[in-house]
Amino acid sequence: xxxxxxxxxxxxxxxxxxxxxxxxxxxxxxxxxxxxxxxxxxxxxxxxxxxxxxxxxxxxxxxxxxxxxxxxxxxxxxxxxxxxxxxxxxxxxxxxxxxxxxxxxxxxxxxxxxxxxxxxxxxxxxxxxxxxxxxxxxxxxxxxxxxxxxxxxxxxxxxxxxxxxxxxxxxxxxxxxxxxxxxxxxxxxxxxxxxxxxxxxxxxxxxxxxxxxxxxxxxxxxxxxxxxxxxxxxxxxxxxxxxxxxxxxxxxxxxxxxxxxxx
Length: 263
Ligand SMILES: C[S@@+](CC[C@H](N)C(=O)[O-])C[C@H]1O[C@@H](n2cnc3c(N)ncnc32)[C@H](O)[C@@H]1O
Description:
By secondary structure, the protein is α/β, with parallel strands linked by helices.
């Protein structure tokens, strides 16, 4: 019975997530459920590298002298994660703890068909190994890189009480996770496909999760998003987007510093 139920869920995901070509010749995944691709059609690797690594992690590592607490909204195919891994291999002085949220795990069978391995020079076995890691468990991936992927939504994560410090929750710690993250990769499906992820209540959660001086990056550059982020108290920057896109968005929690980007 249990096996049958599992198979049913598995085939649901297999039918609901399929391979889709992008313009740089690589493949991404398409979600039937959200009617959306996982990465830009112009090129999955280039967009992730630009938005999350170049405009996110590189800026954070030049700004923070300490270990960077990083939260990813939507682990998906693990592309952002693997690009982060490669960055940390090249930059052993940068320390990162990476928490990835993913309520709808991509079947590993499909991940095996993605061409990232040759494009970014990572062994397929290693990429698949990351996908086989247990959910909800912390791993030391490199001396400077620890990782946990959590099989939950942002709402669930936000509302789950953090582990008590020293065994005792302080009053503020009992309800929500707050001010934990220096950098957020906000990689939800597009506002037209999953609007609730971009509503102000969700953005408020992201604001609350961000440390003072922390910031989030996303590929989305919609005016409404920028206005909402400003309303919440973020300082909004609009670096150039990936591959000829005019803009992307970076939102900083404290406006008393500059990351050196055009506003
Ligand atoms: C654009 S894809 C992310 C691509 C991914 N970052 C990568 O590198 O392949 C969006 C992801 O958000 C996930 N997602 C959907 N609802 C979510 C929620 N409520 N909280 C967190 N993630 C969610 C989807 O399952 C999907 O994997």
